[in-house]
Amino acid sequence: LVSRENHAERSVVRVGGVPIGPGTMTLIAGPCAAETPDQTLQGALMAKAAGASLLRGGAFKPRTSPYAFQGLGEAGLKILADVRAETGMPIVTEVVDARDVELVAEYADMLQIGTRNTQNFALLQAVGDAGKPVMIKRGMSGTIEEWLMSAEYVAQRGNLDVVLCERGIRTYEKATRNTLDISAVPVAQRLSHLPVIVDPSHSGGRRDLVLPLTRAAIAVGADGVIIDVHPHPETALCDGPQALVHADMAELAELVQALPPVV
Ligand code: PEP
């Protein structure tokens, strides 16, 4: 279902009316996690001013340590919904448990499947039934074929509104949090008709790499990028070191403005 074999044209997925697909280079940006109403709104305004059309933000956070901030749950979803009402930006947010899909789908415009859950097949089937577009991160140790099979689980439930997101894979290299597999973008676009975007924030795990990796994503023909921003990353409860700050926004805006208009 997700292969280009029977579907030669590349697909456009619309999220709250915002297209992601061939020729769009959609900018999704916002805080890693919704922490407070003010921090989420400030992050959204930074993102919007730089040209983002979709707001990212986690309410359910999958963390390596059980002692780390796990997200605000439904309170975080409510904050995101308030910020959507104020900014007009549709929301992309993660769901980590099949039991929460109905709840998260009440608030989200696109459901995000994180790298740790890319092969959680019960969760993939549940989001496939939820009637909302789905974004699937590549598993940090997953092959491109496994990633496409994850999308197939969603598509099998009758939901073809699926976006693939390359977010870096685990390699021997320790200089970056993950290794951005930039070749995965054209490879996946040739194998599948689904849009393919890049997460330069979780790939590099470092603020200074986000804009260079965004340039790489644009150069290779990605259909969008998803970027962490934070008004005060020194106090962030989650992934502060990779969040773009106010001082980075002009350069991000310049990159986005240089892109051809969406047709
Ligand atoms: C995220 O985007 O908030 C996230 C946790 O990403 P990943 O699943 O790629 O680590």
Summarize this entry quickly.
This protein has 263 residues and is α/β, with parallel strands linked by helices. It has helices at residues 37-49, 74-87, 101-107, 121-128, 144-155, 184-191, 200-204, 207-220, 249-257, and strands at residues 13-15, 18-20, 26-30, 54-56, 91-94, 110-113, 134-137, 162-166, 196-198, 224-228.
Describe the structure.
It is a single chain. The protein is an alpha/beta fold. 34% of the residues lie in helices and 15% in strands. It has one domain (17-250): TIM Barrel. It has helices spanning 37-49, 74-87, 101-107, 121-128, 144-155, 184-191, 200-204, 207-220, 249-257, and strands spanning 13-15, 18-20, 26-30, 54-56, 91-94, 110-113, 134-137, 162-166, 196-198, 224-228. The protein has an eight-stranded parallel β-sheet with strand order 9-8-7-6-5-4-3-10. Strands 1-2 form a two-stranded antiparallel ribbon. Helix 3 links the parallel strand 5 and strand 6. The longest helix is centred in the N-terminal third of the chain and has 14 residues, at 74-87. The model has no long low-confidence stretch (mean pLDDT 96). One of its GO terms (biological process) is aromatic amino acid family biosynthetic process. It comes from Actinocorallia herbida. Keywords: Transferase.
